[in-house]
Structure formats: structure tokens, C-alpha cells
Specification:
Layout (H helix, E strand, L loop, with lengths): L6 E7 L3 E9 L5 E10 L3 E2 L2 E2 L2 H19 L5 E6 L5 E10 L9 H12 L7 E13 L2 E4 L9 E12 H13 L3 E7 H9 L2 H6 L1 E6 L4 E7 L2 E8 L3 H12 L3 H11 L12 E3 L12 E3 H25 L10 E4 L8 H9 L3 E3 L18 H17 L9 H13 L4
Parallel strand pairs: 1-6, 6-11, 12-17, 17-18
Antiparallel strand pairs: 1-2, 2-3, 4-5, 7-10, 8-9, 8-10, 12-13, 13-14, 15-16
């Protein structure tokens, strides 16, 4: 068996699919991706666990698939958490610099982060991440890294990301039921950003929009730090439902039609083009024709609504139309043809399709926007866990929950 630090595995539990990516850190400290596996999801609804039994069996099957592909056993895993239950709020922490020479040290920063965390969290919520956005040291404002600087009063401004306790427990229960340890719980959109954004984009100001099956997640970065996050309760699955209603067909047929015929802009479609639904489903009578323009109209209306909801989030932080590096679309919904053109029209900003940056992969499917979260979890863990021993979870109440859960399940393992 290889050492655990050499192997990092990321698990993305989505509404439509469970995806795993495995990476190996070589002797030079470089990360190489060596395996990826996916299975259709069961027991997951809107990014949250809806049936533990179903979720456990699919996660186990996906783990086995990845183990067979790579030849390595998976004994611990970095898990992405998302869903409409995720909440964010801003908080400040203020401490006095401890040393007599008034130089800021790592311990001062940790105390300031702990002070920021000491807020009244909503009932039944637990803190996932305490993310510093900037530091103020006396009259020196908006500092990126105050370590070594002189001052008396250190203030940290943070964004706190929280999840519903019940959902976190259900998720950890599913993982431990498979006999695997949880190395860290990471907000999925942060992990996605690691895979598809460059440091320059984060410095300039950029938004990541991850369009999943039933949720759309947003993360906004500026000056290298996270500025705002949100999870919206709409996704690409709503386009399918709209098509099923509009075309008067089954959801299964609507999904196949969407994948084969849908466009995000109806201007590009001739009013005369028709599609025979019988081609996609034998249940439909022969000669059941629908206009291709109607399909595009339905898709455009729903995608435009999703983008307007995202833009409303940007308006909350006064960033609508003000992100120099634009928006990066990722997730399965970003694969809809002409979706980038529609987004440019709605946001009036540069828009790009999110694909992994700075990485060359032997596995083609890793270039797919659907895999960016699982891949990002591996990159996140490689950057954070090795350096400072899971520093974010040290400020997280989730660690206590997962430790209790781990102890309970370990007592049941043979």
C-alpha cells in the first residue's frame, strides 16, 4: 500500500451522478491524476441525501470502480458538500497582537479567525469554512497577509460558510457506512474554483457559476479572495421539466431531446425546422412533430431565468457587470449549446466555459465540465491538507461531528 499523503481522492455527490477522481503526488510534489469514475446518482435530491441506503450503494459501487481502474485502495476521501441548505454570512474577528514586539504571528491570525467564528450561528447549522477575505492592522487596511508586520490591533474580515447539521450528518453517515474515512468536507463550489480558475482571474474579479442538475452554485472572487457564495434552487433539470410540459411528453423523452436538439438561444433556429419525437421515444406516435424553435424558446427562457437569479446575487454585492475577468460557467448545464452566448447577453460581461487549467490529463473525461468539482476536491486537498493539517476544519464545528460519527461506525466495523 502507498502512503496516504501520496494518494488523494475527491468525491462529488451530485443530484445526477456520483463522481470520484483520484490523484497521486509524486516525489517532486507534483499532482498527477490517475483515475476517475462515475455512476448515476440514487438517493440524492438537490445535492442533499434523500435515501441513505441508495446513496451508500452508489458511492460504494463508484469507489470500487475507481479502485479497479487504479489498483489503489481508497481508505480516506475528501468529500464535496453542496445543496440549497448551504448558507453564508460575513463576520469580523478582532484581537490584540500577543507579542511584545508587536509582530503578527500565525497564532495571532488563528485567534482572530476563532474570534470571527464566535458568532451566533442559526439553530441546527454547523460551520464548514471560515474564509479570511482581508486583514486590517491598526490603520493598515485590506492586507493580504499580515504575518511579520508590526501593529497592535489585528482585525480579520471573513466569510463563514455553514451547512445544515442534519444534512452534514447524513452525508458523513453515508461515507462511513462504506468503510471509508473522511479527510475533509469542502464546499463544492470552492473546490470547483480550484480546478478552473487561474490566480490572475481571482485577482482581477471573477464569478464561477456551476450549473448542476437541480441547483446552481455561485462563487465570486476578487483580489485573490472569496467575496460571496450562494446556492440557488434551480438547475439544468428544470429545463428538462419545462420541455416535458411544453412538448407534452415524458421527462425521459424530454431529457434525450434536450441533449440532442436543445439550444440556449432561439434566434439561431429556423421557424420551419421540426423534430419527430417518435425518433426519441417509441411511446410517441409516428409523426409527432414539434418545432425546433419551440424547444430552443423553452430552454432559453429557463436558462435566462437562472442567469437573472445569479445576476441578482451579484447585485447584492454590487458586482453586476463589474467583474473584469467575467464569469466562468461549469457543470453539466454549461454544456448546453450557445449557453455562453446567452450568458454574455444577460450579464454583459466576458463569459467562458470552465475547463481545468494548468493540468494535462491522461483521462479524456476529466476535460468535461461535469468533472470539475471532483477534480477540484483533489487539487484543494493537495494545496491545503498537506501544508497546514486541514487548517480550515480546525475552525469548523463539523470536525467534532465527523469525529463522533467516525468513532461510532468504527465500533461497528469488523
Amino acid at each position: 500500500m502507498v502512503k496516504s499523503k501520496e494518494i488523494i481522492t475527491g468525491l462529488d455527490i451530485g443530484t445526477s451522478a456520483i463522481r470520484i477522481v483520484m490523484g497521486q503526488v509524486n516525489q517532486n510534489g507534483d499532482l498527477q491524476i490517475i483515475g476517475a469514475a462515475e455512476n448515476p446518482a440514487e438517493g440524492v435530491n438537490r445535492g442533499s441525501i434523500s435515501s441513505i441506503e441508495d446513496a451508500v450503494s452508489v458511492i460504494s459501487a463508484t469507489v470500487e470502480k475507481c479502485e479497479r481502474m487504479t489498483g489503489f485502495n481508497i481508505d480516506k476521501i475528501v468529500v464535496g458538500i453542496s445543496g440549497v441548505h448551504i448558507k453564508t454570512l460575513n463576520s469580523k474577528g478582532v484581537v490584540a497582537v500577543a507579542k511584545a514586539n508587536e509582530q503578527v504571528e500565525q497564532s495571532d491570525i488563528e485567534r482572530a479567525l476563532e474570534a470571527a467564528q464566535a458568532i451566533a450561528t442559526p439553530p441546527n447549522y454547523e460551520i464548514l469554512h471560515v474564509l479570511p477575505t482581508n486583514y486590517n492592522l491598526d490603520d493598515q487596511r485590506d492586507l493580504r497577509d499580515p504575518i511579520g508586520m508590526s501593529g497592535v490591533r489585528l482585525e480579520v474580515e471573513t466569510q463563514i460558510i455553514m451547512g445544515l447539521s442534519a444534512q452534514i450528518k447524513n452525508l458523513t453517515k453515508c461515507i462511513y457506512r462504506t468503510g471509508i474515512d473522511i479527510e475533509d468536507l469542502v464546499f463544492s463550489t470552492l473546490a470547483t474554483s480550484e480546478a478552473i480558475l487561474t490566480q490572475k482571474q481571482k485577482d482581477l474579479g471573477v464569478a464561477v457559476v456551476n450549473i448542476g442538475q437541480s441547483t446552481t452554485a455561485l462563487a465570486v472572487f476578487e483580489e485573490g479572495d472569496i467575496l460571496h457564495t450562494a446556492v440557488l434552487p434551480v438547475g439544468a433539470g428544470h429545463v428538462t421539466n419545462d420541455l416535458a410540459i411544453g412538448l407534452r411528453t415524458s421527462v425521459e423523452t424530454a431529457e434525450i431531446v434536450k441533449l440532442d436538439q436543445a439550444l440556449a438561444l432561439s434566434d439561431e433556429v429556423s421557424k420551419r425546422d421540426e423534430v419527430d419525437l417518435h425518433k426519441y421515444s417509441e411511446v410517441e406516435k409516428k409523426g409527432t412533430y414539434v418545432y425546433k424553435k419551440d424547444i430552443a424558446d423553452i430552454c432559453e427562457a429557463r436558462m435566462e431565468e437562472i442567469f437573472k437569479m445569479v445576476d441578482a446575487e451579484l447585485k447584492k454585492i454590487d458586482k453586476s457587470g463589474k467583474l473584469p475577468a467575467g464569469l466562468v460557467l461549469t457543470g453539466g448545464g454549461a454544456k448546453l449549446p450557445l449557453v455562453v452566448d446567452l450568458a454574455k447577453k444577460v450579464f454583459k460581461l466576458p463569459v467562458f466555459l470552465g475547463v481545468p487549467v494548468n493540468h494535462v490529463f491522461p483521462i479524456d473525461k476529466l476535460k468535461d465540465p461535469e468533472f470539475t468539482t471532483a477534480l477540484g476536491l483533489v487539487i484543494w486537498a493537495n494545496k491545503n491538507i498537506g501544508i497546514n493539517q486541514n487548517f480550515l476544519s480546525n475552525f469548523s464545528s463539523v470536525k467534532q461531528t465527523t469525529e463522533k460519527m467516525r468513532g461510532w461506525f468504527k465500533s461497528l466495523w469488523p
